[in-house]
Each structure stands twice: as C-alpha cells, then as structure tokens.
Design goal:
With 192 residues, the protein is an alpha/beta fold. The chain is built from 10 helices and 5 strands, in the order E-H-H-E-E-H-E-H-E-H-H-H-H-H-H. Helix 4 links the parallel strand 4 (65-71) and strand 5 (91-96).
C-alpha cells in the first residue's frame, strides 16, 4: 500500500475524500489514505507558506505522496493554479475545472436518484457556478432548494455520489484526470 496524504481546499472536497465509497476505491487501488484528511479552509491557504504545517504532519506520518485537491475558481487556467500552489516530486496537485460541485452535476446516476427521474447535464465543467445551477435544478424539478453546500454534499454522498460516476461523464475531464493520477500513484508504487 502506498501512503497518501490528502489536502483539500474545503469541506466539500474533504467529505468526498473521506466518503466510504472513495475510501474503498483507494483501498482497491492499493492506496492507504492517511488520516486526518486536511481541509485548508480556502484556496488562499494552499499557498506554499501556508502548507508547511500540513506537509510536516504528513511527512511525520511517512506519506509517500501528497495529493492537493482544489478548484480552478477564477484563475485563468489550471497551470496558473498549479504554479500558485507549487508541487515537488512527492506532491500532486489536482484542479477541478471551475468548482468541485461540477463533479456533482456530472454524476447522472446519483442526481437521477435524488430527482426521482432520469437526469443528465451536458457540460458540467462549463458551469461558472455549479452549486447555483444545482440549486436551480432542484427548485425547478422538486419545488425546493438544496440547502448549503455542506448539507448537499452529505446528501449526494449518502445517495451514492462517486468520483468514478463523475469521471464516466464524457465532459468531466478533471474527475477523470484525478482518478488517472491516483491510478498512476498506485501503479508506480508497485514498481518499487
């Protein structure tokens, strides 16, 4: 098992990483997720000077890789975000295009369960504000909103949200990239 520490931009990302479904996926790959999964409490806290404490914690826990999961937010491109955070040989920076909630829009299976009808969203990663889009879909389809991000994230996970479902969407490349990087981490570990 390769020991991996995860640092997340916020609560939504942390809940996804901590979910039973995702933890099982990691175990099946041969990845041990080091606890705790760290919440940076905002992308501004993912700057190198703000990451020192988190990186030291994972170093003490003998992390072989550290995966940082963040949103693109208003950055011009993924490269800008990665360069702002920086990485080194044992760090992998994963950037969800726009916002992580676009992965929820991409999970047609879970949204179909929640909406109680077949649902799919054509271009989830093109939405400027996927959480607002989700809110509007639920108001339109069910006549009520979805609450705050924290509650909705827990509900999506409870009903089966998985990064794998999001990655199976033809227009959700950041979820696909995330899983491919994890598979690469696991594969590289077996070579040693």
């Amino acid at each position: 098992m390769v020991r991996v520490g995860f640092i997340c931009e916020g609560k939504t990302e942390r809940k996804i990483i901590e979910s039973e479904n995702f933890q099982q996926y990691l175990t099946n790959l041969g990845i041990e997720c080091l606890k705790p999964v760290l919440d940076a409490k905002g992308s501004g806290n993912l700057l190198p000077e703000n990451l020192r404490e988190s990186l030291e914690l994972y170093k003490a826990r003998k992390a072989e890789k550290i995966v940082i999961l963040t949103d693109l937010d208003e950055d011009a491109c993924i490269t800008v975000t990665k360069n702002r955070i920086t990485s080194d040989t044992n760090r992998v920076v994963i950037v969800a295009v726009r916002k992580i909630e676009s992965w929820f829009l991409a999970d047609s299976l879970t949204l179909s369960l929640l909406l109680k009808e077949q649902f799919s969203f054509d271009k989830p990663e093109e939405e400027a504000s996927p959480f607002v889009t989700l809110k509007n879909i639920f108001i339109q389809q069910q006549g009520r909103g979805i609450g705050v991000k924290d509650i909705f994230t827990a509900r999506m996970i409870k009903y089966g949200f998985s990064v794998q479902n999001a990655a199976s969407h033809p227009n959700c490349p950041s979820a696909t990239y995330f899983l491919s990087k994890l598979e690469q981490i696991a594969k590289n570990n077996f070579r040693h």
